[in-house]
Specification:
The protein is of the alpha/beta class. α6 crosses α7 and α6 runs parallel beside α8. The radius of gyration is 33 Å and the shape is elongated. It comes from Gossypium barbadense.
Length: about 750
């Protein structure tokens, strides 16, 4: 049945005079009957779709490159409308990187080989940043410009949303600024060391401290990202040398120019360091790890003799010795390690590599021995036959993941650290260069996840002094300690391993933070990619309360504090959007989630959402009714106060927080602060499961859906409007020909049309 409504002119609902909003007769029946309104619209739920593209620029070295590609994969998994392009620079290229790229099959990710630079590179560390911009800057800019030009000329192509840069490539932030896109940094070390870098920058720039004075000292520093005082003996050599220090300072200053930093760590591992970064700087940090390359099938196949040997060993019986891609020792130190292994009596797998020739410079990598027996003690291989195995390059992930591996003598590179935690293998810390000494300090002294062999050992090619020899007795002690089956270290590593895996699961700390990164920083590009399940998927139904303020309204600190008290005192699970909101309080309770831009329709439609603290914008009101979610009304500006009044007083579909609150930028007076007690009262009320408000919202939700069905109120009224428009059109066009009579059409006189 089609209802044709007679009217002389369109009028606007009295509660919708500011903007053209939508309604339906079940909601506004009394007003409609008074003003003869034709409700031509209905609850409109929509999302805007735009595709986005990120450009990743990693260092072409395996440790950095692989981590960034794995990060790209995680982002692609979260957002189907995202694509990623990786720029591959010819900067000390690594053949393993090319082989790794060739093995990848990821969709929506492509790799662009940049041409070699035309200008000659300056190999000095002091000029690294300047040289990088001069040689590779034009190449990166041209490749990015090509992407921008393509996106603006081809319909439905993704828009360039930003750069993601390696820590060593922060000079390219300037290029991002020139192109008008934000730049983000992926930090491949831990949060504690990031705090150390920023601390050193502050010493240099703000306090005028000459860091070189501490090169040979044992001075303790109180650094916010560490719980214990840190000795200057553990400072990386690169920060204590005049040649390299300017590069470090330039790169660290670049960090502060980024729009955000993603860190390859997770909250459960470095909660203190992450909190210290959040407290000390306005720069957003996102712990998104552990990001690892666990796809080592090719490595295992190529090293089947290694894996076959491990298969023959008892569980957790083998100590694995490996010092990273740059770790190697001279003959004297090799002999001390061999004596220690023999005396310990433990089974071992030792990645023994030959130091590069001095003529190749300090950046050259170790190589495999043609014959390792020439550097080992005489008879060592015969005496350890059956319990030990000497290898060259090691498939580290495969070895750490093997059940026979029970301990790891490691240089404490950050990737190796995360891999050992992932596979529950405790570390005996023997750092070699770079930030490894501070990583070892954190693992041993701060977290209790490792034992010490020699925490302040250094051999990085930058010191001209005599190289220290660690004794066999010290090494043996560390091996015995790390292989202790019932130790507290082993127990803690097992617990942290479980937490590391949960961090990447749906609703885990890093999974949620990675989603936060997108929503906070890039959500405006891919609206429709929001996953309705999101991080609310593990919450019981209908527990969480969803809070959304009008996006353009900025909140002051007093407002935020009162809101925080209201949320945490209620104890309700919260998903909150407020500029400047302190995430730590709710995060520590484990009951809430703080986000930036909100995929509101997806959240309101999720069965876990049980209440909505809202500004009462009309679209938000209709969406909450559609999904049966009651509102706690806190209007902000425009017609929202009247919407709130109607919802609370007229319809009984909402509870009140502060109906007459106003903060629209037009008042010059003091801004009212709504108390935590008032907010808490509203939260408790809206979350009451058996309330009359919840019952009425559920009933109105059913009516809103029926309104759009065939013969429903809005469906019928819209058909009536179409009929009236068509009648008016034919009246105007055919009245002179006498075709139209009264308000009906004669089908015989308008052939080809089906008229009502």
């Amino acid at each position: 049945m089609i209802v044709q409504t007679k009217f002389h002119a369109f009028k606007t609902c009295t509660t919708c005079t500011i903007c053209h909003h939508s309604t339906f007769s079940g909601l506004h029946s009394s007003i409609l009957s008074t003003f003869f309104i034709v409700s031509v619209a209905c609850p409109v739920l929509y999302q805007m779709v735009m595709k986005a593209e990120l450009v990743f620029i990693p260092m072409p070295r395996m440790g950095h490159f692989v981590s960034m590609v794995q990060l790209a994969k995680l982002l692609l998994d979260l957002h189907p409308n995202l694509s990623i392009t990786v720029f591959m620079m010819k900067l000390n290229p690594d053949a393993k990187v090319a082989a790794y790229v060739h093995s990848l099959t990821a969709t929506r990710m492509k790799f662009i080989d940049l041409p070699p630079p035309e200008t000659h590179e300056d190999g000095s560390l002091s000029n690294f940043a300047t040289t990088l911009l001069q040689t590779h800057g034009p190449l990166v800019k041209q490749a990015a410009t090509n992407i921008v030009q393509y996106s603006t000329s081809v319909l439905d192509s993704p828009r360039l949303a930003g750069f993601v840069l390696d820590i060593f490539l922060t000079p390219f932030i300037e290029l991002g600024n020139e192109l008008g896109v934000p730049s983000y940094v992926f930090y491949t070390s831990g949060a504690a060391f990031l705090g150390f870098q920023l601390y050193v920058l502050d010493l240099h720039d703000e306090q005028n401290v000459n860091i070189f004075e501490f090169k040979d000292s044992d001075t303790d520093f109180t650094i916010p990202s560490y719980l214990n005082p840190v000795s200057s003996k553990l400072f990386p050599t690169v920060m204590l040398e005049p040649e390299s220090f300017p590069m470090v300072i330039t790169l660290t200053r670049g960090l502060r120019k980024a729009k955000g930093i993603m860190i390859n760590t997770f909250w459960e591992l470095e909660s203190h360091a992450i909190s210290s970064l959040s407290d000390a700087s306005a720069l957003p940090v996102y712990p998104v790890g552990p990001i690892l390359n666990l796809e080592s099938e090719t490595e295992v196949h190529q090293s089947s003799d290694i894996m076959k040997w491990l298969d023959e060993q008892p569980p957790s019986s083998v100590v694995f010795l490996c010092f990273g891609s740059g770790g190697s020792f001279n003959g004297d130190q090799v002999k001390e390690i061999a004596f220690a292994l023999e005396q310990s009596g433990h089974r071992f797998l030792w990645s023994l590599r030959q130091p590069p020739h001095p003529s190749k410079g300090p950046r050259a990598s170790p190589t495999d021995y043609d014959d390792a027996s020439e550097v080992l003690p005489e008879g060592f291989l015969d005496r350890t036959h059956g319990i030990g195995k000497i290898i060259g390059w090691a498939p580290q992930v495969a070895i750490l993941g093997h059940p026979a591996t029970g301990g790891f003598v490691s240089h404490c590179g950050w990737n190796s650290t995360l891999e050992s935690i992932w596979f529950e293998v405790p570390i005996a810390a023997w750092p070699v260069y770079a930030e490894q000494q501070l990583n070892a300090f954190e693992l041993v002294m701060e977290l209790g996840l490792a034992v010490e062999i020699k925490m302040d050992y250094k051999r990085d090619g930058m010191d001209s002094g005599e190289i220290e020899i660690v004794s066999a007795k010290t090494i043996e002690k560390g091996i015995r300690s790390v292989m202790d089956e019932g130790s507290d270290v082993r127990r803690r590593v097992k617990e942290m391993s479980e937490k590391s895996r949960k961090a990447l699961m749906n609703a885990g700390s890093s999974h949620s933070t990675l989603r936060d990164f997108w929503e906070d920083r890039l959500g405006g590009y891919v609206v429709a990619s929001a996953n309705p399940n999101g991080s609310l998927g593990t919450y019981p139904h209908p527990q969480p309360r969803y809070w959304c303020s009008w996006p353009r309204v900025r909140r002051d600190r007093a407002f935020v504090r009162e809101s925080e008290l209201g949320v945490t005192s209620r104890g309700a699970r919260a998903s909150s959007l407020c500029d400047g909101y302190c995430r730590q309080q709710v995060g520590r309770l484990g009951i809430g989630k703080i986000i930036g831009w909100a995929p509101q329709v997806a959240i309101l439609g999720h069965p876990a959402t049980g209440g909505f603290v809202s500004h009462c914008g009309w679209n938000s009101t209709l969406e909450s009714i559609w999904f049966g979610v009651p509102i706690a009304a806190w209007p902000v500006y425009a017609e929202q106060q009247l919407n709130a009044f109607e919802l609370v007083r007229e319809l009984g579909l909402a509870v009140e927080i502060k109906m007459d609150y106003r903060k629209d930028g037009m008042d010059s007076g003091e801004i009212e602060i709504v108390s935590a007690k008032t907010i808490e009262k509203g939260i408790r009320s809206v979350m009451e499961e058996g309330s009359d408000v919840r019952k009425r919202v559920k009933e109105m939700s059913e009516k809103s859906r029926k309104a759009l069905m065939n013969a429903g109120s809005s469906h019928s009224t819209l058909r009536g409007l179409v009929d009236d428009v068509m009648n008016n059109m034919f009246t105007k066009n055919y009245q002179a020909d006498g075709i139209l009579a009264n308000n009906s059409l004669d089908p015989t006189k308008c052939p080809g049309m089906h008229c009502s």
